[in-house]
Design a protein that fits this description.
heterodimer, B: alpha/beta, Rossmann fold, 2 domains, five-stranded parallel beta sheet, 10 helices, 56% helix
């Protein structure tokens, strides 16, 4: 289940969008792809959870749960 | 539904749930859905804030201020989740919801995988009911709080929130709902 969810996030992510982001946001998006953990990813990004969730959508990363 | 008719929701659940058309169906399943105060600091969009504020005003949502005992219990859950092999670590915000679920009998609404695993695997959380949007929509369909073809309803949620339900779990629920029809 964990691995399946990670694969979906990796596959559907817009990698060119992710790579174009500033380092902090890029690292947070990659962390989210690997773990699916919105809370920690938002802290890495320095955003609120909802702000990070909007960034997740822009990056095409599905929330698998 | 929990015996109390109460639920407690974390931010991860609410921010997606607030973005779909049947969001008020939640209030047909629970007397009150509590939100920890920290959740308000995490929502920023006009759409979510308006929905939360309106529901607070109508009494469908209520603020939850945690007690010292609940925080202590939540910290123990955080620690335990990092000691049990195979269990994904839980952080304090979702651990707090789990603690309230255990101590007050509230249904816990979250999309956090670690919280779901902790409720299944930690002895301290025996009996805690954790629902994701997947289970909330299932219950809403079963009880008639949402009408329509179940497959289309779940698909709408995925489209409107950019959420993805695990295929096998969604299939199991659709079969269950078809069996009841």
């Amino acid at each position: 289940m964990e691995e399946e969810a990670r694969e979906i996030r990796r596959r559907e992510a817009n990698w060119s969008f992710i790579e174009s982001q500033p380092p902090r946001l890029r690292a947070a998006l990659k962390y989210y792809i690997e773990t699916g953990d919105l809370y920690v990813a938002s802290r890495i990004a320095g955003l609120t959870i909802e702000e990070f969730n909007e960034l997740r959508k822009k990056a095409g990363i599905p929330n698998v749960s | 539904m929990s015996l109390s008719g109460f639920a407690i929701a974390d931010t991860c659940f609410l921010i997606d749930w607030a973005y779909w058309r049947y969001r008020d169906a939640l209030f047909k399943l629970f007397k009150t859905v509590f939100v920890p105060e920290a959740v308000l600091r995490e929502v920023k969009s006009e759409q979510t804030i308006e929905w939360v504020a309106t529901a607070l005003a109508r009494g469908y949502l209520a603020l939850y201020t945690e007690t010292r005992d609940e925080i202590d219990f939540a910290i123990r859950i955080v620690e335990r989740s990092r000691l049990v092999p195979g269990l994904r670590g839980v952080d304090l915000p979702e651990a707090l919801c789990l603690a309230v679920g255990r101590l007050r009998g509230y249904t816990v609404l979250t999309e956090n995988r670690g919280a779901l695993m902790a409720a299944e695997l930690l002895e301290e959380l025996t009996g805690v009911v954790v629902w994701r949007a997947l289970e909330v929509i299932r219950e809403a369909l079963k009880r008639g709080a949402i009408a329509g073809d179940p497959e289309q309803v779940f698909k709408l949620y995925e489209e409107e929130t950019k959420h993805r339900f695990p295929h096998s779990e969604l299939e199991a629920i659709l079969n269950e709902l078809r069996g009841k029809a």
